[in-house]
Specification:
This protein is an all-beta fold. It has one domain: Immunoglobulins (Immunoglobulin-like). It has no helices and five strands. The protein has a five-stranded mixed beta sheet with strand order 1-5-4-3-2, with no helix packed on it. It is globular and about 35 Å long. The N and C termini lie far apart (35 Å). This is Annulin.
Length: 93
């Protein structure tokens, strides 16, 4: 099957997904910070207040988050970072 449009990520509530980032330089856990910005498509002006935009900081491997969305570091080597993004779906209701 060949797609005519660019593929899009579909996220189901409560189902995490992994992201592999290739950076332009080595990632240093002690001093570098990464955040993910997610927006709902089709919204003219996404905003945090309307729940159509969320900023998710990358947390260390064993960190727990109390936020609805969380991004946790899985692995980092050279200029590659692997993160797992997940939602606490029961808080989204």
């Amino acid at each position: 099957m060949r797609r005519t449009k660019a593929p899009r990520l579909v996220v189901r509530r409560g189902q995490g997904f992994r992201v592999k980032l290739s950076l332009s330089r080595r990632y240093y856990r002690e001093r570098d910070a990464i955040s993910f910005v997610f927006m709902v498509t089709g919204v003219e002006k996404p905003s945090y207040g309307h729940g159509t935009l969320v900023v998710v900081p990358l947390l260390p491997e064993n960190a727990e988050s109390q936020d609805i969305w969380a991004a946790r570091l899985i692995d980092a080597y050279d200029n590659v970072v692997i993160a797992e993004v997940s939602s606490r779906y029961f808080l989204l209701k």
